[in-house]
Design a protein that fits this description.
Layout lengths: L2 E5 L2 E4 L2 E10 L5 E8 L7 H19 L11 H16 L2 H19 L9 H10 L1 E3 L5 E3 L2 H20 L20 H4 L8 H5 L7 H12 L3 H5 L6 E2 L4 E4 L2 E5 L2 E5 L8 E4 L2 H20 L21 H12 L9 H14 L4 H8 L4 H7 L1 H20 L1
Antiparallel strand pairs: 1-2, 2-3, 3-4, 5-6, 7-8, 8-11, 9-10
Helix pairs in contact: 2-3, 8-10, 8-12, 13-14
Length: 394
Amino acid sequence: MKSRRVDTGIVQRGNTYTFTVAMGMTAEGKQIRKTTTFTPPEGTTEKKADKLAKEEYVNFKNRCKGLSAFNENMRFQELSEEYFKFYAPNKLKPITAYNYEKMVAYHFKDYFGNKKLKEITSGMLTNFFSTHTTQNKEGKEIPLSPSNAKKLYTILQSIFTFAVTQDYMKESPARNVILPSKKATADEKRKYLTESELPPFLNLFQEYSSLNTIVKLLLFTGMRSGECLGLRWEDIDYIDKTITIRHTLSDVGGKHFLTTPKSKSSRRYISMSDSIAELLREHKRHQLELQIAQSETFIHPEMVFTSDTGNYKDRSSLNTSFRNRIKGTDFDFLTLHSLRHCNATLLLNSGVDIKVVSDYLGHSDIGITADIYADVLASTRKKTAEIIELKLAK
């Protein structure tokens, strides 16, 4: 294939232009060059293609200035491999790294995997989030929900920030990205129980069982399910009536282990009511019976919640048990995490200060609490205004 010199640093071969930028000399006197390619849109005339190539060459040359490690020809797949090889093991928790890697393989590999970093733009990311679909429980392809889009965006932000810090890119394309948003319906918004619904809901969990104990504990304390399953008996103080959150139970590839909580603020004390203390005492009695029956095979007697054989309690099977219990009831919209929202909503509606609720839930920032419970807070502010009006009208 014949080549044609278009201008200094620009050579055309077929439909592709190759750019070469001189970057100085090495200590050994060897010239350093940066190269990349550019292909104009199909149907472009030669004159127009040359003009576009010269413009792109100038942009490429400007980007190369002062950026000795610039590697815009690296493909996204190569970048993600380096991210999970060097960054993730040192900066992310094992469960986070595991989930990120699965999400990258499932959502990004086909779309971005073979693309060069120079080809990935903010507009391309916006297009991805507006057109990408995922499967629901019935196997039907549905658009990304705003919450799932935000989770995927967080992963891309982290990967491209890593690329910038390692001088693979000049700047991250994960800026100015437009994420999908939609107004949630009443059913989609509803993540909690009203006060009137609490008695019939709790009636579903009356008799003793490990599931019933966990459900009540989550509802009464606002713990995350991982924090609950990570409790050890030494974390329960019956004298001071406190529960100390020191660990969370993680599951990476089917292997369970204890890790530190989600953030520094997640390590906290939770006050324990008399009813919760008695609930845990009853659970302890039942667990001791299991330990006696399986004294040689009960692996984790130190844990508050275990499987029937003394292993760590699997969060996935716990979720399944909960879903089976509420299936076909008026509470089919709930998840185990919804119980945390129920707890927070009850506190806020009762007038508890948002800072206190934020600390109680273990949020790293009060703004997180305000964002999650914006609707509840708006309702509370309205009630406050009505109360003041009633007081002043007297």
